[in-house]
Design a protein that fits this description.
Elements lengths: L1 H17 L3 E6 L13 E3 L6 E11 L5 H18 L4 E17 L2 E17 L2
Length: 125
């Protein structure tokens, strides 16, 4: 029985470590060439001079903490924005949702996902 619990624990840890975020993008303006996600800035309010390219969203239940899941979701949000050529994102919402759970031995571990949405923008400087 101990081996079975150890196996489930190991599988659960692997699932958490190798899970990934998912996201989408919807072009509403002029699509631009790809931008590396590392070059995309996050804004909590609108910058001075920008153009909206589209709407992006991402979700992640990866990470050991809510902050870890949020970090994965933000990284995915940047990837989605980069695909449509944005160099910035105006963050519109951050929410948490129940994404199910799994049993580790006899214990049910609930999973929650961090969800983020924003406007993919091109800064016109």
């Amino acid at each position: 029985m101990k081996k079975l619990i150890s196996l489930f624990t190991l599988l659960f840890i692997c699932f958490i470590l190798f899970s990934c975020a998912s996201g989408t993008s919807f072009v509403t303006g002029k699509k631009r060439p790809y931008v590396n996600p590392d070059r995309i800035s996050i804004y909590t309010g609108p910058p001075e001079d920008y153009e909206v390219i589209g709407i992006v969203s991402a979700s992640s239940d990866s990470g050991f903490t809510d902050q870890g899941s949020l970090n994965y979701a933000i990284a995915e949000l940047k990837k989605q924005a980069g695909k449509i050529g944005a160099n910035g994102i105006i963050l519109e919402s951050i929410s948490k949702s129940n994404s199910g759970g799994s049993f580790v031995g006899n214990v049910f571990v609930a999973d929650s996902a961090q969800n983020v949405t924003g406007k993919a923008i091109c800064i016109l400087k």
